[in-house]
Amino acid sequence: MHKNDVKGVLFDLDGTLADTAPDLIYALNLSLDDAGFSAQPLEKMRHAASHGSLFLVKTAIPDADEALQLSIQQGLLQHYGRINGQYSRLFDDLPELLTLLDQQGIPYGVVTNKPARFARPLVDKLGLTPHLKAMVSGDSTRHAKPHTAPMLLAAQQIAIPPEHILYLGDAERDLVAADNANMHGGVALWGYLSAADNPHLWPAKRQFEHGASLKQFFVE
């Protein structure tokens, strides 16, 4: 994959474009406290932040019964709706990357499995709404990633053929979705990967260690 192959860029949201773990885990801990459980440290839980609210709960209290886990998940979502975006920020070097893409006339957008009721307020608080040419949430199509439906919708929104789009994500489903949609997959190694992840086995064209290396790709 060369820079000239890329005419558009799509990002996963949590753990790729934005560091949202502080908000998610703060909401988790509020819900855990409501139910009489101890708070979980941010660094212990960070790796789970890309995989949805129920996965966060199951990581925090794996031995609890399913009904309790679901109850705490609902509490998490209620708290998260109130604090969404309060502690989130774009990852290092990504604001400069987005400016560079704007300067080069390369359209970009977001494809996330986060529901629109959370995703859209978050990108708004991050100041991204005026700049995104695509905003596809987990409920924008009938299927979420790794299905191709949200990927192809985003390709339509930025008006770039899939084979000329770089899709960046920090989870295997992101790269499977990109590969299935005939996009160039790029692994965001700065994201919420766990020790159990094997990104070298994911169907990706390239791995990026940090935002600076991704930015360098577009100036080569």
UniProtKB/TrEMBL annotation:
Keywords: Carbohydrate metabolism, Hydrolase, Magnesium, Metal-binding
Protein name, UniProt field: HAD-IA family hydrolase
Top-rank lineage group of the source organism: Bacteria
Organism per entry: Shewanella metallivivens
Lineage of producing organism: Bacteria, Pseudomonadati, Pseudomonadota, Gammaproteobacteria, Alteromonadales
PANTHER family named in the record: PHOSPHOGLYCOLATE PHOSPHATASE
Gene Ontology MF, one: hydrolase activity
